[in-house]
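Q: How do we represent a protein-ligand complex in a form that can be generated token by token?
A: Start from the inputs.
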Amino acid sequence: MSRRYPPINPKFPHLLHGGDYNPDQWLHAPEVLEKDMRLAKLAKVNTMTVGVFAWAALEPEEGRFEFGWLDQTLDRLADSGLYAVLATPSGARPAWMSQKYPEVLRVRPDRGRNLHGMRHNHCITSPVYREKTALINDKLAERYKDHPALLVWHVSNEYGGECHCELCQQAFRAWLKERYNNDLDALNRAWWASFWAHTFSDWSQIESPSPVGEDRLHGLTIDWMRFVTDQTVDFMLNETKPLRTHTPTTPITTNLMGTYPGLNYWKFAEHLDAISWDSYPSWHKGKSHMAISAATSFHHDLNRALGGGKPFMLMEMTPSLVNWQPVCKLKRPGMHQLSAVQAVAHGSDTVQYFQFRKSRGSSEKFHGAVVDHLGTEHNRVFGEVAEVGRTLEKLDGVVGASTDAEVAIVYDWENRWAIDALEGLKKGDRKYLSTVLHHHRPLWEMSVATDVIDQSVDLSKYKLVVAPMLYMLRPGMAERLRRFVEAGGTAVATYWTGIVNETDLCYLGGWPGDGLREVFGVWDEETDTLYPEEHNTVVAREGNELDLHGEYVARDYCALIHAEGADVLATYRDDFYADRPAVTANAFGKGKAYYVASRNDERFLADLYQAIARKVGLKRALGATLPKGVTATRRSDGENDFVFVMNFNDAPAQVDRGDTAYRDALTGEPAAGTLQLKPFGFTVLKTTADKPAASELTIETFDTPATRTVK
Ligand code: GLA
Ligand code: ZN
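Then emit the structure tokens for the protein with zinc ion bound:
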């Protein structure tokens, strides 16, 4: 249902535009800092993220706190009508702390302890580090709780990694005791520890996975990853406690890293008031922008879904180049604006950068910034940033508007850990994430809104649930999927589904397990893995219900399935399993469950999802003909709809808007007829809510220039 969510902080009910700002690096040069507020205003920036790595400036010696510079910074922001996204500094600590308390230093899987340096490398269990972070956070919150500039708390920075020190080992064992109800036999069984005589006879024998110790007990590996997530969440809660006490109404976020594999972000989401993430796609890598644009949209869709659908924050992106990528390419003219608008189009209420002012030295001196070493507003990048700011000011009406997704695609962290850990299939190349991305892309190309969810999310509000390679079924998932299809939902699953339970024990009695065999009407007997140079061919059956046609190429994995009640829509052409089913459809309850037994080409996925979209009647953001490389999204507050039309081509594109009465949200002018989009151009159309999408849409397939018309 369309609705308007409250602004991230009602204190400033506008789209946020800002960036990481490190005055602590310029305290010796006040003349530089004095210029910054003027530049911020010129850049149409309304927030600054301050203090992210400022611990050494805030507490130069143990117990001696220096808040003068931060007082001045926040006062300056407030005096200029700007707001602060105020960070807690735990992402990096002062040298005195590592020197005096070595336990704060992280221990690697090989059990060596790191030296001081870098960042994001603290022990997540150390009582000293927890005490020190809680103390500095308490002081920050106490001091700034009533400051007019305080808008959002930015807790730490990009939590990540793991620590294998003795304190963490003890915490891990305690976590396991709780998980297995103090029953070591239950743990041994759950991990199948009798294999290679790995049975534990005492809890103290259990160690975290290590290249110099145990790394083949997959149940252990997956439980360790779960522990690392829980322990990091616990670390975060220790950080947020003083903030909640002093500033109960100031929203809290921490900047996530997309699909960073090390932490299950769904466990963080429930403790955050706003979800935020840092987006660094390799724009302009390769000829086509489609794959990168689609993947970036997928990550935005994930962050929106993590917040239960409410607007998220794009906490970081670069205004120009990213200095840590293998090739540090400049964003081409227009791409900065387009990528900023893309975030808002998918549900962000902010566009924020790393970084506002470029540092003069050290690691990130060549990373893109709003203010360059030049130090003025007279350069290309500054101009493009200011243009984004002007655009965002015109889109005030979008604040809080929702995205109504009828489709969910499952990307599940625990499943990823299990797929990464297993031995089998194609070593080092199982491609779980890219498979999910491939299934998401045709939906994105059709301008169908999609939530990216995990196995813990309620499915009942969706019409279509896509769950590629759902190897590990977490408790309750099979049952939820069964009820979803029974009640009329449509599900798509693929090869390598329902193989193991949550501790990586294989289901006995035929796959997909845990009852899904009946839902999909197939028995998945074996999986053939293909060498890179090999492929099989999937041949569509005449008159199949999805209108699949011709031959599709299958690579990497071909499951040998038996139809047990499902209709066969396509079969393999080659090898000893020629003529065996390759794509099936099963009517189950009031719904449909499709099984795609092999990893098929992009044309197949385009055909599959176009047909399903038509059958299920999925809403699209724009009822118009969309040329290749142009997509649309829709945000609605129930009264007004905002349709973002984006051209990811470096060539102009034309879009026929159809008959709907739109206004150009940026100019307020009526907008009808053909829309001309510049290379990397976009437009935002406004219309009253609940206009039905046109019944006809042309969608292009990924790899062929041909267009097909969906009725
Ligand atoms: C991350 C960090 C920032 C900065 C940027 C550079 O997202 O959070 O501090 O290092 O990368 O791209
Ligand atoms: Zn540790």
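The domain at 407-616 is CATH 3.40.50.880 (Rossmann fold). The chain has a mean pLDDT of 95.
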